[in-house]
Amino acid sequence: MSPNPHTDIERWLAAEATGDDLAAEAAFGALFHALPQVAPSPGFGERVLMELREREREPESGRVPWLWKAAVAAAVALAGLAAGFLPLLRRIPVDVPSPAEVVSAAARGFAWLAGWLGAGLDVWETLARLGGAIGTAAATPQIATAMMGSALISALALYTLHHLLVYERRV
Fold it and tell me: pTM of this prediction?
């Protein structure tokens, strides 16, 4: 083991250049043996395990589970109450749609949704064509140079405007 890592590197590279695999492996091992050992700080593993235990701990049995139980009980009670009032719905003079009308309305709704999504996709197709044309044009050196010149002129104009405003504030 050499105190200077540069000589170890040079020895390894020289052995690799000559094709001596055994000497190259030995020099490579000496090079990495000379490196300082890196280890986590004391207690690192214990801190990680404590953090994991803290995260896996179940929530305290308090108000949250009680609220969930009350919500489920209220939902079950309302469902039972609604089921009890179902026979009374026959007496209400409301026109209930037939299954055919429900299926027809659902089909019309899906057709409307498909048309709406199709119109949105047409807009994106147009924007994609426009972006492709701009990208193709910007790939040519002449257009790219013109765009860089335009950006430079606008940056210089913004810089000049900033300095004019700063000068005007001072006066």
Answer: 0.29
